[in-house]
């Protein structure tokens, strides 16, 4: 059964390369020993100590190579992980800077709806929707928080506590003052909420 090199996991490929290097080095040592035996040299010969030195040096170099190879693999793994993290959050600054603009559009829409100018409201809604969809396509997602949800300090930012208008809202969210947003899985702005006491 032949395996396609692209389907073999990277760790197996690296292990295979290490094994090949070790086998090549071991074969070279064996060849040197055979050559010495064929020449009829005995362990008492002066060159045997030189052979031992060469073996020792070769062993040290082999060890150095394997350590360097392992360090390089760790470096590759670390940099590829850092690169992926960077790609995921590269536009976080831009997204964070655009959030106040999105908030202003929402406030403007609320006020325009009060004025009763339907054409003006429709135009601003189109622009608002286009901006929101563009930001969504880049990974920005509004956090869904509504009245009655359980307050979680890991996900929400409480700006104040008010007496709960209903008993069932005690310790829960009474109002959402500012929408929270996530970029991928990372929260870039926590929703600001009012909780009931």
TrEMBL record:
One GO term of the biological process aspect: protein folding
MF term (GO), any: protein-folding chaperone binding
Stated name of the protein: Protein GrpE
Organism, as annotated: Salegentibacter echinorum
Region (Disordered): 1-54
Cellular component terms per the entry's GO annotation: cytoplasm
Compositional bias annotation for Acidic residues: 38-50
Pfam families: GrpE
The encoding gene: grpE
Family: Belongs to the GrpE family.
């Amino acid at each position: 059964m032949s395996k396609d090199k692209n389907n073999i996991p990277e760790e197996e490929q690296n292990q295979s390369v290490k094994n090949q290097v070790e086998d090549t080095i071991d074969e070279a040592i064996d060849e040197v020993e055979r050559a010495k035996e064929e020449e009829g040299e005995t362990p008492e010969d002066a060159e045997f100590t030189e052979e031992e030195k060469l073996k020792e040096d070769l062993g040290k170099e082999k060890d150095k190579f394997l350590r360097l190879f392992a360090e390089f693999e760790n470096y590759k793994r670390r940099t590829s992980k850092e690169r992926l993290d960077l790609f995921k959050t590269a536009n976080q600054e831009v997204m964070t800077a655009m959030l106040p603009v999105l908030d202003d559009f929402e406030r403007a829409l609320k006020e325009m709806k009060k004025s009763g100018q339907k054409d003006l409201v429709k135009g601003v809604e189109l622009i608002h929707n286009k901006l929101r969809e563009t930001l969504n396509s880049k990974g920005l997602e509004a956090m869904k928080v509504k009245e009655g949800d359980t307050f979680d300090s890991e996900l929400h930012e409480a700006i104040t506590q008010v007496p709960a208008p209903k008993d069932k809202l005690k310790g829960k969210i009474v109002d959402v003052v500012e929408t929270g947003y996530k970029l991928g899985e990372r929260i870039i702005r926590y929703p600001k909420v009012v909780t009931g006491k």
